[in-house]
Each structure stands twice: as C-alpha cells, then as structure tokens.
C-alpha cells in the first residue's frame, strides 16, 4: 500500500483536484496500511519533496494512531511554514492527552507555534494556532 500512497502523493495535481479527490484516496489507502507500510512511511517521509510532505501531513488524522502522530511530530521539525501550519492543524484532531505528552517532549514545537502566532497576519492560521496552544496549555 505504501507504493500506491507514494505514487498518489507524487502525482502532479491541481490544488482543487487534490482537496476534492486526492485527500479522500489517500485516506482510504492509509486505512489499509499494514505495520510494514507505516514503518516504510515513517522511514521515507523526511526524504520526500515538500509538496509530498504537505499532502501527507494534511491526511494524517485518518486513524489518529501512534504512527500518524509520530510522523507529524517529525514533520514539524522541517523548516517550512506551510508544512508546520498543516501539521498543527492536523494535530488538533488527535486525542489531547496523547498529543500533549508527545509534544511536551519537544518544547521547540510550542516555541515555534508561539512565534508563528505572534508574526502571522493570516487570521485562519492564527485561529488554528490559538486553538492548538490553548489545548496544549489546558490541564
């Protein structure tokens, strides 16, 4: 299944077709992933082009499993503002306690989220970051 996923994410698509159809296809493929597929994705994700990484980050709330969570945390360390924003938005779908525990082990993520929040003019991004940070700071 990983090979099918890679082909789909590597395909040259328009933004509209990706969000209309591609996202649904990726979500379906991910639902059939075996442990080997998850391992392959985990091992390969950092070597892929930034657009590929953005697409997968957008789709990683399919099962809200440990693999998806760890891949998103890994992608948060890539220096790309749009990828960071997508990862933060996707992480909001995960159960709070699991997400919180893992993110608190990486304080640079919260620092970067606060920095992006303070410097962005984009209102939707601000709302996503504010929601994420408020959930991370809640008890």
Labels describing this entry:
single chain; 0% strand; mainly alpha; 139 residues; Leucine-rich Repeat Variant
Structure description:
By secondary structure, the chain is mainly α. It has one domain (2-137): Leucine-rich Repeat Variant (Alpha Horseshoe), CATH 1.25.10. It is 75% helix and 0% strand. It contains nine helices and no strands. It has helices at 2-10, 15-31, 35-44, 50-59, 66-75, 81-91, 96-104, 107-119, 123-137. The longest helix is centred in the first third of the chain and has 17 residues, at 15-31. The protein is globular and about 40 Å long. This is Immunity protein 30 domain-containing protein.
Quickly describe the structure:
With 139 residues, the chain is mainly α. It is 75% helix and 0% strand.
Fraction of helical residues = over 70%
Main pleated-sheet profile: none
Kindly name the structural category.
mainly alpha
Question: How many domains make up the coordinates?
Answer: 1
Protein name: Immunity protein 30 domain-containing protein
